[in-house]
Amino acid sequence: MSRLEKKMTRSPEAEDAPLFEQRPGERRLDIDPSGIRPDAGLVYIGRIRSPWIRRDTCPKNMAAARDKGGGGTVEVDPAYRAGLEGLDGYSHVVLLTWLQHAPRDLIVQKPRHAETATGTFALRSPARPNPIGLHVVRLLNVDLSAGTLDLEAIDVLDGTPLIDIKPYFASTDAPAAPQDGT
Amino acid sequence: MSRLEKKMTRSPEAEDAPLFEQRPGERRLDIDPSGIRPDAGLVYIGRIRSPWIRRDTCPKNMAAARDKGGGGTVEVDPAYRAGLEGLDGYSHVVLLTWLQHAPRDLIVQKPRHAETATGTFALRSPARPNPIGLHVVRLLNVDLSAGTLDLEAIDVLDGTPLIDIKPYFASTDAPAAPQDGT
């Protein structure tokens, strides 16, 4: 499939959602990271099950997901399930996911409701050179033998590939007095 | 290079550090993720400059790195620098790095000072199927034209590849009352 065809292809769950469209002030990379030889390779270790099957109703971040509720489940593939041992003692984990439908060449972008365009690394948009999703989630239950984690809430489409799970530690992961740029 | 040879090769900065050794209770995957066809490909967007050139003196987590100080710098490659626009308003960002020297097939592991072995996903060890480092760091300065971010502290070896930068938002990234399993 050519790069153009690839961009024109709509993912099944996005039937009713708009394509990622170009907006004023946006800039693309000269070379699309999805089209070049990668520097490193990821393996999928499982997937996220969520209530969200359409991009337009999927919560855009974890704060919105917690407000909306609806739960979610992490399914870890059999080969990787032994890695969950000990996780049941934690209240929160960090999930890393692969946001496979996002364009990778958008380096300055204008969020739908923003007035101006902003650099990709100053946004949490899924569109980025390496479309990795970062989600701090609350664990409701861990089933080691089934390889599942029940979540309070999650902000990704059903079926999103999982690439890592890490325990959350406030001592390392929560800065003392963060200030955002808004 | 065969898988065995690859495992026997020591990285330049690890000359004085022990190899990742097998410890009691540890378990390896049947298939090493570094040796199979990847599900997705990463591109390096830059690298970390840090004071740490030996594994035995490199802080093991961000809490230790903040205690130790010493600063650090993110260098973003020219092609990706436009993505930094707007980042200077933030006090903290999340860096994702690729911990390229870590073994990827260790699924249950015993940290050096731990009494028992624990699942990889309940640890922050660099050894994991996808060795992605997650670092919440305080920004001291952003130089958009040079593509550099000066950091208060960082817990990775000098030269570690950078794969993503995200703004940190307490509203989405800091859970209300996290409890860890220790």
Any overview of this molecule?
2 copies of one chain form a homodimer. Chain A is built from 3 helices and 10 strands, in the order H-E-E-E-H-E-E-E-E-E-E-E-H. The radius of gyration of chain A is 17 Å and the shape is globular. In chain A, strand 6 (106-109) and strand 7 form a beta hairpin. Chain A is 9% helix and 27% strand. The first copy, chain A, has helices at residues 3-8, 62-68, 170-173; strands at residues 27-28, 40-42, 46-49, 72-76, 92-98, 106-109, 118-119, 132-143, 148-151, 161-167. Chains A and B meet through strand 2, strand 5, strand 7, strand 8 and strand 10 of A and strand 2, strand 5, strand 7, strand 8 and strand 10 of B.
For the CA atoms, what is the radius of gyration of chain A? 17 Å
* Element-by-element helix/strand order of chain A: HEEEHEEEEEEEH
Task: Return residue spans of chain A where pLDDT drops below 50 for at least 5 consecutive residues.
Answer: 1-17
Shape of chain A: globular
Distance between the termini of chain A: 40 Å
Q: How many strands in all of chain A?
A: 10
Short description, anyone?
Chain A is mainly beta and 182 residues long. Chain A has helices at 3-8, 62-68, 170-173, and strands at 27-28, 40-42, 46-49, 72-76, 92-98, 106-109, 118-119, 132-143, 148-151, 161-167. The N and C termini of chain A lie far apart (40 Å).
List keywords for this structure.
3 helices, homodimer, mainly beta, 3-stranded antiparallel beta sheet, 182 residues, 6-stranded antiparallel barrel
